[in-house]
Specification:
The chain contains 2 helices and 6 strands. The protein is of the alpha+beta class. The chain folds into 2 domains: 96 residues, 2-Layer Sandwich (MS2 Viral Coat Protein), CATH 3.30.380; 31 residues.
């Protein structure tokens, strides 16, 4: 089971200085945990949801270990008419590793994922929708 509280050191300005963001377990279900963050209120979400899926063996293949997390934060933006509306910003990250993968290879895959998210190409994709 995951910890009841998670502290994420977030480099908000991408300048090497981190700010701790504390997330607290709010709900727990079979194969899913929901944490609320510092900006969470009754009317605006700031959540991280963690998921896992039981491994399904297929013959001699031991299966895939699947997990994911989703960040959701409700933000106020302008609509096409210039009025404020609240809409969610969502980031989904999923992993599917074959059972038996080495811890070193799993770490490398996660590190590559972070590198893609931090790379300038991710900013072009998410901010300008360029492919």
């Amino acid at each position: 089971m995951l910890d009841n509280t998670i502290t994420l050191p977030v480099d908000v300005l991408n300048n090497g200085t981190t700010v701790n963001k504390l997330y607290t377990r709010d709900e727990e279900y079979v194969n899913r945990s929901v944490y609320t963050g510092p900006a969470h209120t009754l009317t605006a979400r700031d959540t991280i949801t963690f998921y896992r899926q039981p491994v399904k063996r297929n013959g001699a293949f031991l299966g895939q270990a699947k997990s994911a997390f989703k960040l959701t934060e409700d933000l106020t933006v302008l609509n096409a008419e210039g009025a404020n509306i609240t809409q969610p910003a969502v980031v989904d990250v999923a992993c599917s590793f074959p059972v038996g993968i080495t811890p070193a290879k799993a770490l490398e895959m996660r590190q590559r994922t972070m590198a893609v998210l931090d790379h300038a190409i991710a900013a072009s994709l998410t901010e300008k929708l360029q492919i």
